[in-house]
User: Which sequence fits this backbone?
């Protein structure tokens, strides 16, 4: 008789647990959905300011960057994402020759967003922004010249 | 020139329109008649809205790929949610994560097992260029060395929205293709059996580590 | 803390002695290349009841044929650790039953972590042909009918003529690129052979050429679900070596973030376990709530998965003003949601049937295999580093170490669910009391660690994550070793799988909760 | 209530009047086949769309949204894609069987589908052992699955197919027993008569406890027959990648995909015919006005409404539960469903003999 009871008891227990599960999904069926519709909400999408999507050079009011071409970012980069090309310019007033930035080349396709370059920069000439729409068809398009 | 349209993002706001336009010109060198053109549009509409991806993930980017599939970002809205585990039934492979030397033949084989038309999306730094592990002895520096890549999504890992954006870029690319009279096979049978294909547009060593 | 070197002859006897004296947990075997002085290995041992630790270093002078006696019969996990050392350093372990490479292809030339390893492409190009397993022997014969070219007869040394199927590397249930070869009898698994290395990225070798801040970035990518804890471990190790004491504020932030990361990881575990068992809806629920943790992470650190937050001497940026409010909101929300997962999945009859009594790992085996983390605690082994060797603020907060005793899949699952609640409990104690102070201690621009050996361990999301640094005073380490959390779990697979079915393999894999990039490094 | 039979009879008579008998018969056959296949395809598309939306709703997401309004055109896009997708032929597979298998599966499901009574007279074949025929036709789908698994020369497919064989053959028994309960209750196997008998009250009410038990068992067994979660072991995404159809691509895979959904429709359709009154409207004894209003709703609406309700129930189950293990699936059938089904049949017989039914 005991055997019989456990047989039926098992069935009852099973049905109970399954019904609990069903009731949860049923409740979710009617709750508002949590989906954010990305391309539709592009205008209102708020992404954390600290998010790192791409390196850029903040410009001052006159449209110049603050880079002094010291090369610290390049030497700190773990995987050679940053390449700085410099040229030597002679300052007209003092007559001293000075290294200035010619091209700041940044490979978005291999950046690991470790922030070492930003941390080390003495002039805060580079920073990360959160413009994440960067997918392209051509690998070469990911190699970006940051200074204008 | 017909410009592929995507809901909610104007054509001009997309990146890399130049490559796409060059591609359109390349494809449409020969003229086609109107009927075939319309049929092509219909087929491309179908193809671009039904990109079923292979569930393939090796590392971090794979978790973000799962997040794209989950409730918050829900790529089912685009019709991408039918992820297939069998490469035979998949339309695209999202290479999400590092590809090592040991994995490279496996990836190539998976790619060969897929039925045409098939697309490849390189997700994240590792798949694009080797990313953080560029200098390693066991890491493939970019999957485009072994399989042709259609779209590159940079990021480490790219955030889910960026992945959706990349998928829309792929949709745009699919929309300009031609089924009738176009090239429907990326690789000939010969290429498939031979060793690695050499892709030429990989940037040269200038930005590489050493 | 320079252990004396033991001769290779006396080594075996010494290890047996240690094992008899209760050193039953082999934390790690660290292969070493001391250059001229020879190759060798450092064994770190621990007594699982007294938590006393010791280090044994063994060195063999010959670089051509280095051999060390195997200890796989004393600590079962040594079987895999020794294969790893063989793979990287070419040290042969005498009497080891299965001395194959663990990570690299078997046609790989050279041993990459040796100092004299030649990395040139010419020696090890990308090989695109499929790897033929070492245990397979192929005989080619010309077939009778000329139509077919060659008849291939395959014999297998490991499996014999059993029915073998391959699970992975591309398989939805292996959580990445792990590969199992299974011998099947109907649905039942007779034998398993684990192949790792499909995502071996050579982090340890790369680290030897990089500066310490650069190495930090790798730790996030080891086990991306305990990114924060991994980075914590390395920062702690470097800070210990340099004598930097992080401020109280930093300790608070680190502890809170560690626990948030643990919640994140356990939620993902729960989701993926549910998905592997076919309950896709639970998977989505888990991910839905995980997004809330990720929101907090992104707000503070700027990254969802790879956060990049701990730096040497502090954290990258101060917490945001509404951090505390958001975390508290999340904690309250999450406590409610646990009930929902339990109702829809955990208490479900089908789940219980699939998990209870399946994949039992006994306490002895758990220790012998070094299965730390939730999997070890489900077997009744109190292995939480937070209790064993407290770090950060864990000796100041009150929390319970969750221990179950059956060691089956269901217990492994429940441990994680309960740990989510414990983590919430820890966070709630800390969140309102974050002291004021600097979020970062000023460090020198170039970080050099004084000569010596340093190690640190944290409780990662899925076990003990250890860092070992041997420094020669340079700005990059002479040898850096991470103790993987997943490798012992994978090593224990064949023990756990005794008599299991294919479906059980999936349940066991899901509940052991390994992350492949952490195994392969 | 509209009897669809009048239209078909009129068409038949007209065709016979303008052409010889054989030609008329041939034309009718073609017409009917076309209609059946067309309805099959359309319903499949509706089903797939419904599945995707319902599943999304259970999972707090939105589901297809961007292709057409509310994603209505999503499945059409999938169909276009599928039609032009390459069909890979597998090296060292059994080519004939490999190519035959998807057609077998689809044939079996179309054949069963065309036996469903959509409305009064709206049915291809109505003969005295209709129920029996449906059972026979639906059960040879498993043959296609077994062949697919066998001929693919893939170990996953093989395991999937063997699982499928074990599962479907087991659950066939329970389905048979549940249908027998209704046959005992109604005393007929002809589908039109079965539905006719439910005009004044559906069998699930008439047969009270045993009929309700049979309904539940039928739903469980039917779910298992269609290989849907928690019984989706033959495909078991996380175990066997894609199970028996791992190696199929393009439209061949499409056939399996469509057949899976349509089998669900068929199971639900049979359930609604046998237990919920098919196209018969809801009548409550004593409420004359209510019954009259109900009569205005066409029979096909009733049938489809009930069927989709049952489908929705099954989807609800599918998107809630985890997958079972093969030994549990088999023991559920042999240890629980089958004995209960037998006892249930006995109870129903006693009820009918003693006249304890409504």
Assistant:
């Amino acid at each position: 008789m005991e055997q019989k009871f456990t047989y039926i008891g098992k069935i009852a227990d099973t049905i109970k647990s399954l019904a609990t599960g069903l009731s949860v999904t049923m409740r979710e069926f009617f709750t508002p959905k949590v989906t954010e519709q990305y391309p539709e909400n592009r205008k209102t999408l708020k992404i954390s300011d600290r998010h790192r999507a791409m390196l850029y050079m903040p410009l001052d009011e006159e449209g110049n960057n603050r880079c002094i071409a010291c090369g610290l970012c390049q030497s700190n980069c773990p995987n050679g994402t940053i390449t700085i090309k410099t040229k030597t310019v002679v300052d007209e007033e003092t007559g001293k020759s000075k290294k200035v930035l010619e091209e700041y080349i940044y490979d978005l396709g291999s950046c690991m967003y470790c922030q070492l370059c930003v941390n080390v920069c003495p002039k805060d000439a580079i920073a990360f922004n959160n413009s994440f729409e960067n997918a392209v068809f051509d690998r070469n398009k990911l190699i970006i010249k940051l200074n204008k | 020139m017909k410009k592929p349209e995507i809901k909610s993002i104007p054509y001009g706001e997309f990146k890399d329109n130049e490559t796409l336009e060059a591609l359109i010109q390349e494809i449409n060198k020969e003229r086609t008649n109107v009927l075939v053109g319309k049929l092509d549009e219909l087929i491309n509409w179908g193809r671009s809205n039904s990109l079923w991806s292979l569930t393939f993930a090796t590392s971090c980017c794979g978790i973000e790929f799962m997040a794209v599939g989950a409730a918050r970002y829900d790529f089912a809205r685009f019709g991408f949610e039918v992820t297939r585990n069998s490469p035979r039934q998949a339309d695209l492979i999202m290479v999400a994560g590092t590809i090592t030397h040991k994995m490279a033949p496996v990836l190539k084989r998976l790619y060969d097992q897929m039925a045409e038309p098939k697309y490849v999306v390189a997700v994240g730094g590792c798949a694009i260029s080797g990313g953080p592990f560029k200098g390693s002895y066991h890491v493939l520096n970019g999957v485009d060395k072994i399989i042709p890549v259609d779209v590159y999504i940079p990021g480490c890992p790219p955030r889910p929205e960026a992945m959706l954006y990349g998928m829309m870029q792929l949709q745009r690319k699919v929309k300009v293709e031609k089924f009738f009279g176009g090239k429907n096979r990326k690789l000939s049978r010969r290429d498939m059996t031979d060793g690695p294909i050499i892709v030429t547009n990989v940037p040269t060593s200038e930005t590489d580590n050493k | 803390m320079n252990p004396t070197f033991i001769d290779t002859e006396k080594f075996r006897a010494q290890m047996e002695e240690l094992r008899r004296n209760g050193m039953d947990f082999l934390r790690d075997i660290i292969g070493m290349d001391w250059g001229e002085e020879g190759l060798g290995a450092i064994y770190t041992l621990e007594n699982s009841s007294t938590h006393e630790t010791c280090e044994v270093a063994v060195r063999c002078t010959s670089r051509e044929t280095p051999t060390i006696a195997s200890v796989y019969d004393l600590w079962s996990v040594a079987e895999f650790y020794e294969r790893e050392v063989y793979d990287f350093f070419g040290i042969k372990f005498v009497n080891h039953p299965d001395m194959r490479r663990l990570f690299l292809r078997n046609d790989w030339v050279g041993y990459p972590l040796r100092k004299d390893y030649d990395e040139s492409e010419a020696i090890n190009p990308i090989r695109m042909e499929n790897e033929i397993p070492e245990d397979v022997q192929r005989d080619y014969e010309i077939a009778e009918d000329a139509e077919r070219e060659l008849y291939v007869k395959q014999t297998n040394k490991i499996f014999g003529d059993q029915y073998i199927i391959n699970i992975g590397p591309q398989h939805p249930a292996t959580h990445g690129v792990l590969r199992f070869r299974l011998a099947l009898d109907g649905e039942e698994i007779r034998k398993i052979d684990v192949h790792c290395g499909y995502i071996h990225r050579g982090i340890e070798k790369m680290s030897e050429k990089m500066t310490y801040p650069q190495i930090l970035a790798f730790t996030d990518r080891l086990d991306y679900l305990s990114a924060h804890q991994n980075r914590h471990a390395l920062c702690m190790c470097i800070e210990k070596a340099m004598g930097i004491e992080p401020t109280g504020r930093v300790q608070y932030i680190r502890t809170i973030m560690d626990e948030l990361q643990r919640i994140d990881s356990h939620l993902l575990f729960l989701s993926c376990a549910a998905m592997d068992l076919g309950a896709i809806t639970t998977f989505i629920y888990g991910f839905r709530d995980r997004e809330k943790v990720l929101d907090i992470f992104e707000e503070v650190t700027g990254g969802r998965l790879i956060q990049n937050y701990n730096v040497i001497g502090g954290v990258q940026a101060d917490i945001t003003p509404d951090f505390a409010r958001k975390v508290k909101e999340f904690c309250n929300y999450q406590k409610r949601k646990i009930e929902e997962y339990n109702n829809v999945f955990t208490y479900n009859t089908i789940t219980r049937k699939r998990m209870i009594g399946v994949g039992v790992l006994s306490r002895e085996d758990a220790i012998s295999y070094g299965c730390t983390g939730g999997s070890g605690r489900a077997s009744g082994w109190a292995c939480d580093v937070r209790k064993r060797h407290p770090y950060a603020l864990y000796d100041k907060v009150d929390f319970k170490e969750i221990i179950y005793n059956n060691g089956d899949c269901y217990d492994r699952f429940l441990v994680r669910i309960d740990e989510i609640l414990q983590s919430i409990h820890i966070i709630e104690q800390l969140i309102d009391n974050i002291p004021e102070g600097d979020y970062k201690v000023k460090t020198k621009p170039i970080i050099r660690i004084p000569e010596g050996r340093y190690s640190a361990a944290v409780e990662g999301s899925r076990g003990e994550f250890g860092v070992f640094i041997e420094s020669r005073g340079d700005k990059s380490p002479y040898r850096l070793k991470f103790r993987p959390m997943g490798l012992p779990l994978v090593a224990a697979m064949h023990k756990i799988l005794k008599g299991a079915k294919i479906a059980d393999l999936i349940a066991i894999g899901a509940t052991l909760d390994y992350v492949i990039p952490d195994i392969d490094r | 209530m509209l009897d669809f039979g009048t239209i078909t009879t009129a068409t038949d008579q007209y065709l016979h009047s303008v052409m010889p008998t054989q030609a008329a018969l041939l034309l009718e056959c073609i017409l009917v086949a076309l209609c059946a296949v067309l309805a099959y395809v359309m319903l499949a598309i509706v089903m797939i769309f419904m599945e995707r939306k319902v599943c999304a709703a259970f999972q707090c997401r939105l589901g297809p949204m961007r292709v057409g309004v509310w994603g209505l055109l999503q499945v059409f896009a999938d169909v276009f894609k599928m039609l032009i997708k390459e069909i890979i032929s597998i090296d060292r597979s059994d080519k004939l069987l490999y190519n035959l298998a998807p057609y077998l599966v689809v044939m079996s499901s179309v054949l069963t589908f065309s036996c469903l009574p959509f409305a009064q007279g709206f049915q291809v074949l109505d003969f005295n052992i209709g129920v029996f025929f449906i059972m026979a036709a639906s059960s040879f789908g498993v043959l296609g699955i077994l062949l697919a698994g066998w001929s693919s020369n893939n170990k996953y497919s093989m395991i999937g197919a063997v699982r499928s064989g074990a599962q479907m053959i087991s659950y066939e028994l329970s389905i048979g027993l549940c249908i027998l309960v209704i046959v005992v209750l109604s005393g007929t196997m002809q589908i039109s008569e079965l539905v006719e008998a439910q005009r004044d009250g559906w069998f699930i009410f008439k047969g009270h406890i045993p009929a309700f038990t049979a309904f539940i068992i039928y739903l469980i067994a039917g779910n298992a027959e269609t290989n849907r979660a928690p019984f989706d072991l033959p495909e078991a995404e996380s175990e066997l990648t894609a199970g028996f159809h791992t190696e199929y691509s393009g439209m061949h895979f499409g056939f399996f995909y469509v057949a899976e959904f349509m089998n669900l429709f068929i199971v639900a359709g049979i359930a609604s015919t046998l237990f919920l009154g098919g196209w018969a409207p809801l009548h409550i004894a004593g409420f004359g006005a209510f019954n009259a209003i109900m009569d205005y709703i066409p029979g096909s609406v009733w049938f489809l409404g009930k069927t989709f309700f049952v489908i929705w129930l099954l989807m609800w189950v599918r998107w809630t539960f985890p997958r079972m293990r093969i030994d549990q699936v088999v023991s559920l059938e042999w240890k629980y469903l089958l004995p209960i089904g037998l006892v249930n049949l006995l109870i129903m017989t006693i009820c009918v003999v003693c006249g304890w039914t409504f």
About this structure: The mean pLDDT of chain C is 84. Chain C touches chain B through 48 residues (CB under 8 Å). The domain at 5-94 of chain C is CATH 3.30.460.80 (Beta Polymerase; domain 2). The CA atoms of residues 309 and 315 of chain C lie 6 Å apart.
